[in-house]
Amino acid sequence: MDKSDELEASLDGHLSNMKKLENALMSTLTLAGIKEIVQVKIDDESVLKIGTSGKDTGKLIRDKENVLRTSGVNLQAVLSQEGVDSRRTVSNDIIETFNVLGIEAARQALMTYGCSFFPYCIF
Questions:
Q1: Whole-prediction pTM
Q2: Distance CA 10, CA 7 (A)
């Protein structure tokens, strides 16, 4: 057996051990989060902002932001998390929006999400 075969066998052994460790951790480890949020996806979203420094001061500039999109809904728990921008956090669950934020927020959500389904929206 030459050195490259020994190295390959050694790497295969380490990889096998890492897979065993991964399987052991995944079967025993519990990640805590927000109840009823089952999946989170991070998307980059293009946004327009007003520049606040240098030559861009006062100008509209295009920027990218990370946006979290979730499967599952728990608006009240999400809004109570530190670091969550409550002015820009939305839910497409109209009933939960009503229960957490009230009738005006539910009306606005109906107009926002209803118009995305109907091409001739009058709102």
A1: 0.59
A2: 5
